[in-house]
Amino acid sequence: MTEGPDHGDDITINELVGAKDPVASSADAASMDPVPRRRLSAHERRDQIIDAAIALFGTRGYNGTTTRALADAAGVSEATVFKHFPTKDALHSEAFSSRVIDTQDELIAELRALAAERKDEALLKRVVSAIIQGLEIHRDMQRMLLFAWLEQSVEENTRLSDRVLEFPLFPFLEQWILARQTEGEFVDDALPLLTAAVLGLPLYYGTQHKLYGLPTKQSDEEVAATFAAFLLRGLRRSR
User: Fold this and answer.
1) Which of 21-30, 157-166, 178-187 shows the highest mean pLDDT?
2) Alpha helix (H) residue ranges in the chain
3) Domain 42-95's class?
4) How many Cα atoms sit within 13 Å of 177 on the Cβ side?
5) Apex CA 147: angle with CA 214 and CA 61, to 5°?
6) Looking at residues 95-108, what average pLDDT do you find?
7) Could you give the C-alpha distances from 43 to 24, 46, 51, in angstroms and in order?
8) Same fold across 42-95 and 101-235
């Protein structure tokens, strides 16, 4: 019997197709190595911690949020949290101010321009829109504030209220209403009450439909236009 060729070292087509080139295999292995992540700057790390804090404070409240949970949510150690914020209270305070106060500069610039041109209705419409949109964009922040109001003592809430009134929008509105009163355009009613009326209407509506998620048939544009016209009728002096 004639022996055929020795196929002991032969490979099948399937094996050939499945075989990997050593050079290609090395390249594939290299491509699978984890890409080194860019090291965050101190400012970026601080923002990362604040974002995590707002989310947790908005779902668990201040008392229900531990620094350990804050660190885990931010993906850092507790030591890193304390490196940026000496206390949980300091973090809570910074989260509150950095996401609200620091975002109002552009809005105030727009309002000042409208005030200079005496465009009262357009100014009110912009205020209403900003408040409603802010409640939608910063839902976690609003939840955090609601928890704070409910958890804190009267004294603590008084301090928080004072901080809220430091928002650039509040003193601007008071100054604008006072200026229009001085010019004889607006009624001479108590300034704090008029300011509260301008703020209260969009805040109530925004809380109902942006924070609580209740349905509405009106667009934000329609709401802003309706509220602005309504508020201006109440502010203007009768001729």
Assistant:
1) 178-187
2) 13-18, 22-32, 42-60, 67-74, 78-84, 88-98, 105-116, 120-137, 139-151, 154-164, 169-182, 191-206, 220-235
3) mainly alpha
4) 25
5) 115
6) 77
7) 41, 5, 12
8) no
DSSP 134-153: HHHHTHHHHHHHHHHHHHS-
**Which fold is adopted by the domain 101-235?**
Tetracycline Repressor; domain 2 (1.10.357)
- Token digits for 231? 């508020």
Handedness of CA 208, 212, 217, 222 (dihedral sign): positive
Q: Cα separation of 14 and 12, whole Å?
A: 5
Burial class (CB in 10 A: 0-12, 13-18, 19+), 111: buried
Could you give the 3-state DSSP secondary structure of residue 186? Answer: strand
Q: Where are the domains of the chain?
A: 42-95, 101-235
| The token pair that represents 62 in the structure block | 């201040």
Instruction: Collect all residues with Cβ–Cβ distance below 8 Å to 223 and sequence separation of at least 6.
Output: 128, 132, 202, 205, 216
d(CA 58, CA 139): 8
Q: Would you state the structure tokens that stand for residue 214, as one six-digit string? A: 């209740």
Q: Which one has a higher pLDDT value, 177 or 60?
A: 177
First and final CA of the chain: distance in angstroms?
124
Tokens of 184: 């004889």
The encoded tokens of residue 95 equal 């989260």
Tell me the C-alpha distance between 134 and 155, whole Å.
Answer: 27
- From 4-8, 37-41, 49-53, 171-175, the region with the lowest mean pLDDT: 4-8
